[in-house]
């Protein structure tokens, strides 16, 4: 088995998405798919997830084309996790119309004890599973662990999530989740409160408004890359995290200045994701387009 | 009569403000008061407005202490304009509880034809009055005109506002107003649409999310200075505009790079305003504190 410097543990899904610009069935989705695809522009990344026997071979090929490690993609009897969502005209939040967990109910992520990844990302899954993975992790071999979550877990599994937060280095969440978690409207105070829950570094994604990075007592604020059209926001958060983590792994530098650049990189990769359905835009994307947009972006927000 | 390079025409008011942090009667307010006070850190500014005989001498002294020109502050029989507002916990939008126009109903701004200001700011007043002023303005002696407005006029005097927008160089408004005016949720598209209505330069203020600057085909995005506590948002928009215009007048440079710096300067002055009730924070403020916060801010958002 090959070893990879970065591993993501999350979901692989088949989505049905409706936006003001159109509707599409059978979109290849899931947090781990988006994350790994985005990270793979920068580093070798391995995906740990579960799918059913119905998982299309074409989707597997999409990941393989980007050299994403699939040794830990479990294929089991049953159907792949399915999500159906809709975005209203403001495109800021998805309305979940249907969730079919299917094989996700059987997901039991297991790390290889002999070769844990150096960088680990726990994408949005049940905090119980995230905690289960953290219990298997050997520090300091695994030197940087980040995680994501969602409002569903903040409301439903708060105690388990609190345990997870005590053990991760970086927590990435969106503005609504940060407010829900801390009961703080002010996002600066919310970010500081979350740091006190465990992760020394917190990234609060604000969609069209950019992102905040809290790192020890330091702070960084970056606007979003300006887009006249957001076609489909699905996967923006996961590709943000993937771009950010991929950049960190590639550079190998966990200092604050480099974390800032990683946040910008994640934000820029996400700005491509939302330009089309699912992974469609990322599949056409070249690394130099990302680099060019970062340079262009610098001009738009430096003074 | 002294002549001033910058004039603001707007309101001078007595406010009653309630925020989650407290309540205060008889707060010195009004768009022209806030604007002129902020601008006076950078340049000589003259205020044109109307007040009643009840206008407190202490308020006049506050303006005089900052050398704000008051030759055009009309004092007339009747009561000064009064506004009563309340902010809920999100502090993003004020709920107007009461408005007493009083002497504002008699306001007829008249420019001195022989010495128009070089820079003119039409703060938030009836677009009919704004248009009336614009009809008196002699170009090119008056070389730069900017204006503000509010949702009330967008909904109620759209035709008059459209006429105003055709004649100004810069239009500054907030995100909600930009969306209302253009029926566009996407603020980039909204800003571009507003440029097509007349003003070559548009500034969209986004409160805690910063601001956008649209100038010809160019674009600039800046986050807000991070504040853990926003005490009273009243006057933030007017001091933003005042700081921005004051900076422009002082530098005398209307190029895009300098407009960017002016927007940052306005945003930073506003970040002080919201730290206390009314003008209380600005009254204690020193120019070097503004400069220091701008430098500090640069570090928080450059990468």
Automatic annotation (TrEMBL), chains A, B:
Coiled coil: none annotated. It comes from the Bacteria. Pfam families: PfkB. Keywords: Kinase, Transferase. One of its GO terms (cellular component) is cytosol. GO terms for molecular function: kinase activity. The keyword DNA-binding does not apply. Gene3D superfamilies: 3.40.1190.20. Residues 28-279 form the Carbohydrate kinase PfkB domain. This is Sugar kinase. It comes from Candidatus Danuiimicrobium aquiferis.
